[in-house]
Amino acid sequence: MKNWYGRIACCLLISVSPAVPAAEEAELDALRQELDRLRRDYDKKIEQLENRLEPQQQDTKTPPAQPHAVPTPGRGQVTDKAFNPAISLILNGSYTDFELDPEGYFIPGFALGEETGPGEEGLSLAESELVVSANVDDKFYGAFTLALTPDNEAEIEEAYFQTLTLPWGFTLKAGRFYSGIAYLNEQHTHRWDFADTALAYRALLANQYGDDGAQLRWLAPTDLFVEFGLEALRGDSYPAAGAGDSGVGANSAFVHIGGDVGVSHSWRVGVSRLYAEAEDRESSESGPALPAAGDFTGDSEVTVVDFVWKWAPNGNPYRTNLTFQAEYLWREEDGVYSNVPAPYDAEQSGWYAQAVYQFMPRWRLGLRYDELDADDPGPAFSGTGLNPGDHTPTRSSAMLDFSNSEFSRFRLQYNRDESRPETDDQWFLQYIMSLGAHGAHQF
Amino acid sequence: MRGLFIITLLLLAAALPVRAELRVFACEPEWGALVQELGGDKVSVYTATTALQDPHRVQARPSLIARLRRAGLLVCTGAQLEIGWLPALLRRAANAAVQPGNAGYFAAADYVTMQEVPQHIDRSAGDVHPDGNPHIHTDPRNIARVAKALAERMVRLDPDHKAFYEARGVDFRARWDAAIERWERQAQRLRGVPVVTQHRSWVYLIEWLGLSEVTTLEAKPGIPPSSAHLAQVAARLEQSPAKMVIRAAYQDARPSRWLSGRAPLAEVVLPYTVGGTPEAKDLFGLFDDTVRRLQAAAR
User: Fold this and answer.
1) In 3D, which of A241, A246, A238, A248 has the Cα closest to residue A210?
2) Strand pairing of A225-233 and A343-360?
3) Given an 8 Å threshold on Cβ–Cβ distance, is A168 in contact with B11?
4) Cβ contacts (< 8 Å) between B251 and chain A: which residues?
């Protein structure tokens, strides 16, 4: 309102000043008086308008009586701010209590990647995530996710652009991103239904496989959801390492198929395969008492079958809903470990199944079971962490979470973790807070 | 080599138009019904949600991505109603035609005057919509406004059937205006009737019929009503009693049922959109039934 008044005053001044020669003082005075009169008039009118608006503003709970009078903020005003990307920040922290020391965590039979394990004990901040995303222009979308670790390190989790308008159902994505293989792999930490990821992901993908590269997806023109994807990746993150093959050390292919059954059920199945070259892949494969097998150089091939089924009465998840998901990961590795004279050629696999049930608005209960299996790589590996012995790593988890709104969540989780030969009772109390832009989630 | 050949064949098959009709992906049933009214047999409409689903909370299901892939026109409410799922569909559907900014993207909220546009945007006020209250179709006059713009858009996308769409548009608007008059006549006695709503889904309906909203069961939009807040509402109703508590067919029955058991007021379930009640078969049935149910409760 004041702007408008100011603009009128300015216009008047501008239109008046150059037209008046210095001599014609009397005319100028007359104009000044006229201007003053106008100003007084407007002041009075604005005051009246403000008086009328005031009672509406005082009561914020009830809508204004004449809602049509409410202007849409931003409309008509062009500022740089209007083009700011969507920004959201995820705050994440926990209190944990473990029976066994999480330092020196190991799973017999597996060479774990770095930063894998149950996490910090006690009170700690988990990764905070800063997500910035927007349409770049009419043809591209870009997204950036920065993870800030509790040790004050910043890590680029994702930084990619993708096409929106390629013909024939193609989508190209390039940059750094979580690979489209499997189901859970693409999901950021804050979307997990449990405080920690599945054991199979921890053991075979070092929690999550993300790398630099390009991805091409093709969506079939059918009512059934059928999507094919191919990826070429740098090969610099576990299970790949060393960016082999001149920096294109990994590639993957996946197929996802999905649909609905009636209005209450929906499902998706997928088959994926990741081929990765590893050059001097470091790992913390041994328990504190075991000698390390050393760095791995060779080929790693991971095959994943995933299944997700979601139910909500009439397709309305507001009151109750159930999600069931299960994945089977199978990895073949062929190569050498630096401290072992014999070659390594063995298979390792793992699966999990979980169900999360929202039994009333805001409250969810989840159960999960994990199991791993590793080949015995032969006598040369006896005594190293790669010898599974006769132990089958398993874990059973239960969680209860409460979400005050879509943007805040508190979770209590218990794990009976038998991934090590000794049983560990693990408790997690976790919060996840999302600030800022709403963010649309994938299935 | 053979794989390449098969892929090429598949691509060719994908590129060929299967049928000449305009494929429409409607986010909500009201827009699906409107497209059907305007397009008749020249369109094939897929409606992404049902009247029993909360349009705020829909999963970006694979089936929706597949349906959006081949759509020539997307018709949604906009105003951030579908913010939790539509962007995910648009990014996955690999369909240039329906991306925002293109002719195939139609947001109904662009053609009506929004109410409850917040002056201050902060999530402490709940899941607020920065562009205003998105439940615009509960006022049939808004549907008339959208119908005009939508018919123009359909002509633009499918100029071969220009005359067809225009004729149907004129016919629909004439029937619709007559129906609005009838509903307004029928609902005259509803003016000033005090009501309680469950979610702020009815501001446009309330304004249209001149109802008077005493309070809302959701203390803040999108946050389920707590028992403490419901008790406050019940206490408030002792001072300023309401005739009825209104909720949409898709909304949780418990809060309004609890309240109607506690205070002397009728519980009214309105269809909210096409398909919400057996009577709300199309847009006309939707408002016939809405007005009838309100009248019955006000008696």
Assistant:
1) A238
2) unpaired
3) yes
4) 318
A74-96 mean pLDDT:
76
Which of chain A's residues have a Cβ under 8 Å away from the Cβ of B67? 223
| pLDDT attached to residue A286 | 53
Looking at domain A100-116+161-436, its CATH superfamily turns out to be Porin (2.40.160.10)
**SS3 label, residue A17:** helix
Subunit contact B222:A406, Cβ cutoff 8 A: yes
Q: List where CATH 3.40.50.1980 sits in chain B.
A: 19-182, 189-298
Mean pLDDT, residues A311-338: 94
Residue A416 confidence class, pLDDT cut points 50, 70, 90 = very high
Cβ separation A316–B101 shorter than 8 A: no
ipTM score over 0.95, yes or no: no
In CATH, the architecture of B19-182 is: 3-Layer(aba) Sandwich (3.40)
- Residue A417 pairs with which residues in a beta bridge? A395, A424
Query: Is the minimum CB–CB distance between A172 and chain B shorter than 8 Å?
Result: no
What class has domain B189-298?
alpha beta
Distance from CA of A227 to the nearest CA of B (A): 9
Side-chain-facing half-sphere of A192: CA atoms under 13 Å: 21
Choose, out of B8, B9, B28, B95, the residue to mutate when testing the contact with A (most A CBs < 10 Å). Answer: B95
Instruction: State how far residue B160 is from chain A, nearest Cα, in angstroms.
Output: 23
Share of chain A above pLDDT 70, in %: 81
Query: Above 60 in pLDDT, residue B136?
Result: yes
- pTM for this model (two decimals): 0.84
CB pairs under 8 A between A and B: 158
Amino acid A223 reads D
Convert A74-93 into a string of H (helix), E (strand) and C (coil). CCCCCCHHHHCCEEEEEEEE
| Percent of chain B residues past pLDDT 70, beyond the cut | 93
Tokens 């299935």, residue? A443
Task: List, as ranges, residues 323-382 from A with C-beta within 8 Å of B.
Answer: 361-362
Structure-token pair, residue A254:
């996946």
* CB-CB neighbors (< 8 A) of B72 in chain A: none
Mutate one of B123, B196, B216 to test the A interface: name it (highest A CB count within 10 A).
Answer: B123
Instruction: Parse chain A into domains and list their residue ranges.
Output: 2-69, 100-116+161-436
Q: Among B73, B86, B15, B74, which residue's Cα sits nearest to residue A166?
A: B15
Q: What is the 3-state secondary structure (H, E, C) of B141-196?
A: HHHHHHHHHHHHHHHHHCHHHHHHHHHHHHHHHHHHHHHHHHHHHHCHHHCCCEEE
H or E element, residue B276: none
A57 — pLDDT class (breaks 50, 70, 90): very low
> pLDDT per residue over A18-51, tens digit each?
444 445 666 667 777 777 777 767 666 666 665 5
> Which of B45, B50, B61 is the best residue to mutate to test the A interface, defined by the most A CB atoms within 10 Å of its own CB?
B61
Distances (CA, A) of B66 to A229, A397, A398, B117: 15, 34, 34, 34
